[in-house]
């Protein structure tokens, strides 16, 4: 019996190898390498990696730029994830109704997501141009002064968030739309028979039933926000004065501008830890707030 069970375990392991090999090669090994490099002083070129212990982490946690980037990262997550999901749900509720041309509207709203982020960011950089850009032109039509969307520390992060929300809300809409179309009609009809209005049905029936989709989108969008790079690099390069520099962009600057791989690796490790903590907290909360239909 023991030999038979061991044979079954080896067979199961053999079937999992095709999935485990990419996971080990492209995730576990790079993660271990980054963790090791965070304890070294290396400039990408020298053949010698000097072991410095926790010096990179000590420097990082005493660096005001790190805390500024951490604050920008948290603001970017809150300012992008929640609006993307809210607009996506609103659009899905609107398009879930029977209306002419709904397929065309879905295509138009989804098209920004399939467009490369770099191309989208370049177009928006023209829109945000202070003198002749469309955004300030519209503001002047209504009697307002122009805004330095990407040049002013007060508005630069908002400009990046507008681009991010515009690009991602159509993708969120598609998932919510599928969830809405798969809702049990008998529950909605039962709510109508009990006298529930549109708002009551949305609050007590629709939102709880689509909570698995909401939870999935929250996790995916949060990780995507923590990894945002392209739009920041094209629009602001982390400026002005670090007002749009997230932790990932700080990692890029440390690694590929300053060639301080040790510091960059420590930033990467901190970013991984933040992702893990957010995921654990989210899964803990989801046990009480996410309702899976049986």
SSE arrangement, N to C: HEEHHHHHHHHHHHH
Distance between the termini: 36 Å
In which order are the strands of the major sheet placed?
Answer: 1-2
As a whole number of angstroms, the C-alpha radius of gyration is 24 Å
Arithmetic mean pLDDT = 87
Q: What would you call the structural class?
A: mainly alpha
Low-confidence stretches: none
Total helical segments: 13
The largest sheet is: 2 strands, antiparallel
Which bin fits the share of residues in helices? over 70%
Number of strands: 2
What is the global morphology?
Answer: flat
Strand residue content: under 5%
Overview in brief:
By secondary structure, this protein is mostly helical. It has 13 helices and two strands.
Q: What is the topology?
A:
Elements: H1 2-37, E1 40-41, E2 50-51, H2 55-61, H3 64-95, H4 102-114, H5 117-127, H6 134-141, H7 156-181, H8 185-193, H9 198-209, H10 211-226, H11 230-235, H12 247-256, H13 261-289
Antiparallel strand pairs: 1-2
Notes on the protein architecture:
This protein has helices at 2-37, 55-61, 64-95, 102-114, 117-127, 134-141, 156-181, 185-193, 198-209, 211-226, 230-235, 247-256, 261-289, and strands spanning 40-41, 50-51. The relative contact order is 0.13. A hairpin with an 8-residue loop joins strand 1 and strand 2 (50-51). It is mostly helical. The protein has a two-stranded antiparallel ribbon.
Give keywords.
mainly alpha, flat, single chain, two-stranded antiparallel sheet, 73% helix, 294 residues
């Amino acid at each position: 019996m023991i030999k038979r069970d061991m044979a079954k375990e080896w067979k199961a392991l053999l079937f999992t190898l095709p999935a485990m090999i990419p996971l080990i090669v492209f995730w576990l090994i790079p993660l271990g390498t980054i963790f090791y490099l965070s304890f070294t002083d290396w400039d990408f070129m020298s053949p010698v990696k000097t072991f410095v212990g926790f010096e990179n982490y000590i420097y990082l946690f005493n660096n005001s730029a790190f805390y500024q980037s951490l604050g920008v990262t948290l603001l970017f997550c809150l300012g992008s994830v929640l609006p993307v999901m809210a607009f996506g749900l609103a659009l899905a509720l609107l398009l879930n109704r029977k209306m002419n041309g709904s397929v065309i509207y879905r295509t138009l709203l989804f098209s920004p997501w399939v467009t490369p982020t770099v191309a989208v960011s370049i177009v928006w950089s023209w829109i945000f141009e202070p003198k002749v850009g469309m955004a300030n032109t519209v503001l002047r039509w209504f009697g307002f002064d122009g805004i330095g969307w990407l040049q002013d520390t007060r508005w630069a992060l908002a400009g990046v968030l507008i681009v991010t929300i515009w690009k991602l809300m159509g993708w969120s809409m598609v998932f919510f739309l599928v969830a809405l179309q798969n809702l049990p009609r008998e529950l909605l009809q039962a709510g109508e028979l009990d006298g529930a209005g549109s708002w009551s049905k949305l609050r007590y029936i629709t939102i709880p039933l689509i909570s698995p989709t909401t939870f999935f989108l929250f996790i995916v969008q949060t990780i995507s926000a923590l990894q945002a790079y392209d739009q920041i690099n094209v629009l602001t390069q982390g400026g002005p004065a670090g007002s749009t520099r997230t932790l990932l962009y700080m990692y890029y600057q440390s690694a590929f501008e300053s060639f301080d791989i040790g510091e960059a690796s420590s930033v990467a490790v901190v970013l991984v830890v933040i992702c893990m903590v957010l995921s654990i907290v989210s899964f803990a909360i989801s046990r009480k707030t996410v309702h899976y239909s049986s």
